[in-house]
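In response to a reviewer's request, we include the raw inputs and outputs for one of the modeled complexes. The two entities were modeled together in a single run.
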Amino acid sequence: MIGRLLKSDFLKIKRKGVWLLTLIGPLGVVCLQMVNYSLRKDYLLQQSDNDWHFYLLNVHAFTPLALVLGIVILTSLIASVENETNAWKQLIALPVSKMAVYLSKFTVLIVLLLTSSVLLLIFTLGYGLYLNLGDSVPYTSLIKFSLYPFAASLPVLALHLWIALVSRHQGIPVTAGVIGVILTYMGYSLPDWLIWKWPALMNDWANPDIVVQLGIGVGLLVYLTGMLHFVRKDVV
Amino acid sequence: MDYVIQTNQLVKQFGREQAVDTINLAIPEGEVYGFLGPNGAGKTTTIRMLLGLMKPTSGTIHIFNRDLKKERISILKQVGSLVENPSYYPHLTARENLEALRKIYQVPKSRIDEVLAIVKLEDAADKKVKAFSLGMKQRLGIAAALLHEPKLLILDEPTNGLDPSGIIEVRHLIKSLPAKFGITVLISSHLLSEIDQMATSVGIISEGKLIFQDTIERLRDHAREHITLRVGDSMAASEALLVRGVHAESRDGLVFLQEGSDTHVAQAVRMLVQDGYNVYRIEEAKRSLEDIFLDMTKGNVL
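The model returned the following structure tokens for the whole complex.
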């Protein structure tokens, strides 16, 4: 059932600019460093002994914001596909379970964001190689900096998807989205337990692996809560 | 008789408001069932419950003699629906809209062309639905509802907002469905004339209560003409007629004759005159279906 729903959901996002956004996000993050490094490469290379690591940190400075911004825009786009003409009443009257409908929407977003993260990895590596930052490419760090923020942002994704899929008015998800982006932007000065801070992988927990585990765990919890709410809710 | 839809004491409450109040629908197979009621009477709420979009507060729904609560998914495989305004994806073409549903129903691709032909949208198949007129969107909605060859079609106000030619087209289409495809149709409307031209059975709902449910003929029976006589003493006069075997009753100081043929009226008048009653007026009062509908929905008993 979920496979059929996924095929249908991917068809529905055609011409919505969703895939373009998936590309633009990681491209934008790396482009900022292209500007940064083309303007003051010498200065930046002086800042640390490990040029690759310093470059990755620079790229990562903008990853959380781009990621949360992407989550907010993509969740509201996905929801708007059904909200626009209240296609929910057609979708839920199909012979599919409401849980599968919700899971399918979530999976579409996971696929999109994971694609973005992999693209981020490729673009980061590509420009890093172009910059000629040293012979030993730190592949482990590269993978961590590209994919960990995605895993750490799962609670944010689950929460914004929940809000977008159960809200009758666009205003609520938009407001929540703006708040989410602002919180991510201010992440530096926020307490560690706030989920919008997690994609930055900054905390006093010493090990970024913990953020990933927490992200997956809490993300699953928020996802299940949202799904149960969606299943119980009447379609108006 | 086999019933396609049966509800038992169906109730839906929104807060303190009883939107649907202990409704027992019984929709026989192969009929076009007109579900009639003023706006806000509970039609759409009932239909949403029949499609599993809303959960009943209490009561049960059986479709194809199966419990909707337990077998929702297998029941919905055989149900097509169009609820209120058509639902569609404006950025997709008509064909893509149907394809998005086809992927879920897993019917052969050829069905898309078939249903587009049924609703006469072949020429617009590859145009974006955004550019469609309301009538075309409505027809696309019906095509979507027919895609998986359902046995039951539930249409909520399908002619709402259509122009007269659109209404006629949709009406013809709906009327042809039971005979052509063996589909039972439930169609709701707030317009009696609409139902009168399509339905074979009727249910009338008002303020959440089902106040009439029978064949359209039985409803039309209520619309028969009545002959009223204004006479000196209506009570005594109607009794005098009854004694002589003429069906008459006295109401509001008038005598009502149940048989309206010329000979019956002449006979009744002759009897009254012979018995010495003064006959002031003989009038024919014809009640339209609209009058009956209004009477019923205002809470008057027939």
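As requested, we also summarize the result in words. Residues 98-131 of chain A form the longest helix (34 residues). The interface with chain B takes residues 4-5, 7-8, 11-12, 14-16, 81, 84-97, 234-236 of chain A (CB under 8 Å).
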